[in-house]
Design goal:
By secondary structure, the chain is mostly beta strands. The protein has 7 helices and 30 strands. The chain is 10% helix and 31% strand. A 5-stranded mixed beta sheet has the order 8-16-13-10-11, with no helix packed on it. Strands 19, 20, 23, 24 and 25 form a 5-stranded antiparallel beta sheet that branches. The structure holds 2-acetamido-2-deoxy-beta-D-glucopyranose (10 copies).
Length: 479
């Protein structure tokens, strides 16, 4: 939502953003005096099924016409009996992870630390992807954003014993990962965590995913032709991306080659998207299935002969207009992503998204199409949040077409081509959005479209562009 951006007010009650202020410090950081009264803004989202129009928080509008961080001097006094020996024994602070290799995205790791001198509430554990010899060079927390982090006192033994452990769930971001235990330098009072000089207490060994080309972020999109469906996914660098598909589960007799593309920092507009938050997005693959029979269920896997395949997904081809048939649509905005491991990311995560996405997964077999109308991932310049977001929704968008509309947090930036001059996209200026979601739009940076599904005609417009009457035309689909 546009807390910093322009707000278009409506008097018809159609903007129904609700913001709930949740005071979490007492539960999550019992000893966290300096973090007290931390306010987490949780956005509740609207969803609706068939015929009820959600309010567009993203300033995007869908109109349905018709039905609707080594502290070597770890200090540890093992002697209870001071009459025998009262010189302190110094043990090295260490941080360990219970594995060095992970098979699949979404696996959990256990991070443990011991011998932390004078445990402090400002101690935190950060997950970093850092190239080169990080053990010698260390991690400069002001140079690159962590993937995620957690305060050490999240572990109950930290403050009392100077040791603890935390479980992290890791998404495959195609980079070697390392954990650091740091002291200070982290301020989480703002919506974007702030990093300053931190003391490194310990660094773990590297953890890496075995397969950087594991097919991930699988999602579907409709085109203007109901006999087509676009399958999109992401890998590191596979060169022979394909979709195997068919009408019988386990017997995917058709194979289609996909096109691949990517984007880099130079395609975007500013910081943090191009520096502090930037990570290689990987290779984005797209394949357009065609000749689909209306209403028929199709099964597919995507991937590469060399690097392996995704799990099998299925979808139902678009149904033709039929006044007596029901179209089941889920429409929502402003979701973002939440972390099931309770960790934090640099740009505030949306804890409510954990429950919402769980609910969406439960509805997947009763949903024909999803419209996520703006403010999609809230990545806002922190590239790995896109990976996290797709991980959260893949069980939905891999099985149901996932149609999107741009929001202020995807598009707006203080640069000439931005209609609304605001920092809302934090340098992304719409680039990750449009490269990741192949919508039936007329051109890049013209994210509006028109689509039919069943008996419903959808007009998706962007309120982040100049929508003066007559300035642009929307290609007409259907009759
Ligand atoms: C590491 O710890 C996590 C979280 O407790 C657990 O799920 C995972 O199985 C462990 N991995 C190994 C290799 O023991
Ligand atoms: C933690 O560090 C801060 C700043 O150095 C200090 O003021 C505080 O007393 C320390 N102790 C605890 C228990 O947090
Ligand atoms: C850490 O990174 C910041 C920002 O890139 C840079 O200004 C600073 O010099 C770096 N510090 C060290 C010790 O390399
Ligand atoms: C991942 O992709 C990068 C750049 O595209 C490439 O240089 C690197 O070799 C790839 N690594 C693996 C393990 O595929
Ligand atoms: C798989 O599908 C093909 C083409 O539809 C069919 O000829 C073949 O019998 C099927 N195989 C199995 C094991 O069902
Ligand atoms: C793949 O590239 C070809 C040639 O440029 C183009 O015709 C086709 O539409 C592309 N497919 C997708 C799914 O973008
Ligand atoms: C229209 O939908 C109804 C209800 O699902 C179904 O009975 C009927 O066969 C459909 N008509 C056509 C032409 O597909
Ligand atoms: C998620 O749902 C559970 C119950 O299912 C509830 O206890 C919890 O408060 C919800 N969390 C959020 C952030 O809404
Ligand atoms: C959806 O249907 C598939 C196939 O019947 C089934 O395996 C899956 O468990 C269902 N999912 C839900 C959430 O009901
Ligand atoms: C929007 O487009 C109209 C029509 O071309 C133009 O008059 C107006 O100046 C534009 N507004 C902005 C802020 O560019």
């Amino acid at each position: 939502m546009a807390e910093k951006g322009p707000l278009i007010e409506q008097d018809d009650g159609h903007y129904s953003e609700e913001e709930a202020l949740v005071y979490i410090s007492d539960e999550k950081h019992p000893s966290g005096a300096t973090r007290k009264a931390e306010v987490r803004r949780e956005r509740r989202l609207c969803y609706c099924v068939v015929g009820v129009m959600a309010g567009s928080v993203a300033l995007g509008v869908v109109v349905a016409i018709s039905l609707f961080f080594t502290f070597h001097e770890g200090y540890f006094n093992q002697d209870q009996d001071n009459s025998v020996n009262d010189s302190p024994v110094t043990l090295k602070t260490s941080l360990t992870v219970n594995t060095s290799e992970l098979d699949h995205s979404g696996e959990w790791v256990l991070v443990k630390w011991v011998n932390v001198p004078d445990p402090n509430i400002s101690d935190w554990v950060g997950l970093y992807s850092v190239p080169g010899n990080f053990k010698e060079n260390g991690i400069n927390v002001t140079a690159k954003a962590p993937v995620k982090f957690q305060y050490a006192d999240y572990s109950q033994t930290h403050m009392t014993k100077g040791e603890g452990s935390i479980q992290f769930r890791l998404v495959n971001i195609r980079q070697p990962l390392v954990f650091g235990l740091f002291r200070g330098g982290l301020d989480t009072h703002l919506e974007t965590a702030q990093f300053s000089q931190a003391t490194t207490l310990a660094l773990s060994d590297t953890v890496s995913f075995k397969n950087w080309n594991e097919p991930l972020q699988v999602h579907l999109a409709l085109t203007n032709d109901p006999t087509e469906m676009i399958v999109s996914w992401v890998t590191n660098s596979s060169s022979n991306p394909e979709v195997n598909w068919g009408t019988e589960s386990g017997n995917l007799t058709n194979t289609l080659k996909a096109n691949s593309s990517s984007y880099s920092a130079s395609d975007m507009c500013g910081s943090p998207a191009i520096d502090f938050g930037y990570r290689d997005p990987g290779l984005l693959h797209k394949a357009k299935l065609s000749g689909l029979q209306p209403g028929l269920t199709y099964y597919y896997t995507c991937g590469d002969q060399q690097f392996g395949w995704s799990q099998e997904f299925s979808f139902r081809a678009a149904t033709p207009a039929n006044a007596s048939a029901t179209t089941r649509v889920v429409v929502y905005g402003d979701m973002g992503n939440g972390h099931v491991d309770g960790t934090w990311q640099v740009i505030r995560e949306q804890p409510g998204a954990v429950n919402t996405s769980r609910m969406l997964r439960g509805l997947v077999n009763q949903t024909d199409v999803v419209f996520h109308i703006g403010d999609i991932s809230y990545a806002r310049g922190f590239a790995n949040v896109w990976d996290e977001f797709f991980d959260e929704v893949q069980a939905v968008c891999g099985n149901v077409p996932y149609m999107v509309c741009i929001g202020n947090h995807e598009r707006n930036w203080n640069e000439p081509t931005s209609y609304w001059k605001s920092p809302d996209s934090m340098g992304e200026c719409g680039v990750p959005y449009e490269r990741r979601f192949p919508m039936p739009r007329p051109a890049l940076d013209q994210p509006w479209y028109n689509i039919d599904y069943g008996s419903v005609h959808y007009l998706v417009m962007s309120t982040e562009h100049n929508f003066t009457k007559g300035l642009h035309s929307v290609p007409v689909s259907g009759e």
